[in-house]
Design a protein that fits this description.
Layout: H1 7-18, E1 23-25, E2 38-39, E3 42-43, H2 46-54, E4 58-60, E5 64-66, H3 75-83, E6 95-100, E7 106-109, E8 122-126, E9 132-137, H4 140-155, H5 175-179, H6 182-189, H7 194-197, H8 205-222
Antiparallel strand pairs: 1-4, 2-3, 4-5, 5-6, 6-7, 7-8, 8-9
Helix pairs in contact: 1-4, 6-8
């Protein structure tokens, strides 16, 4: 049985009920992998296993899609088989579980950085031009909690507008929310995500500098 407490997921679903966010929830995936099961050679995260034992996928019209999976369609397997052959290492060793709708931005766990319980941190992968990934949560449920806080922040802004073009970009423009994850900040400060964030080459210099500035904002927000 995949049984773990997922308060972050509960917070995200509560935010969908509180604010005008259309949420599509699929029935539980009866064949959901158990924690540690190998998927394309990668261990399946315990919190993802719990998620899929309760829901067969989640789509928010706010751009977040957690891959749909059931007995007929394994969205996680399809997403990884379709994309990862074209990615260089170390990105090929990530496990994609979601994406930003209508784009190539992906959300993935990092199996190589799993903690003693097997819980894997979450990154947002930007595969455009020079591929890189930004750390956004210390584990899958913390990702759900962080995204819920992001939605709460947007809908509670005094100057809230329906124009999504005016909303802060996740995660670049909400360092305070990302920095609230103390375990994640510890990993960032230790440089454990450097191999995913910083790339070599002239074309990557601008992106690397932007990432360094973002990390500085995270560290300032965590003080």
């Amino acid at each position: 049985m995949n049984e773990m407490s997922l308060p972050g997921l509960e917070r995200l679903l509560a935010a969908c009920g509180k604010y005008p966010i259309r949420a599509e929830i699929r029935k539980p995936w009866e064949g959901a992998p158990t924690a540690g099961t190998r998927l394309l050679g990668r261990p399946f995260d315990p919190m993802l296993a719990t998620f899929y034992s309760r829901l067969g996928g989640l789509y928010l019209d706010f751009d977040l899609l957690v891959e749909p999976c059931d007995e007929q369609v394994n969205g996680i397997l399809m997403a990884n088989e379709e994309i990862q052959p074209y990615w260089p290492e170390p990105f090929r060793s990530l496990l994609i579980f979601g994406c930003r709708d209508a784009s190539s931005y992906c959300y993935a766990t990092v199996p190589s950085l799993a903690d003693a319980q097997g819980l894997q941190p979450v990154v947002k992968v930007d595969p455009y031009e020079d591929i890189y990934a930004l750390p956004i949560a210390s584990n899958v449920d913390r990702f759900f909690d962080t995204y819920a806080r992001y939605l709460e922040f947007i809908y509670e802004m005094p100057d809230f507008s329906e124009d999504r073009g005016t909303w802060p970009v996740f995660p670049w423009e909400v360092p305070e929310i990302i920095a609230a994850d103390r375990a994640l900040m510890g990993m960032i400060v230790e440089g454990r995500f450097d191999f995913l964030m910083f790339q070599e080459g002239v074309a990557a210099r601008r992106t690397n500098e932007e990432i360094r500035e973002w990390i500085a904002k995270l560290r300032a927000a965590s003080m």
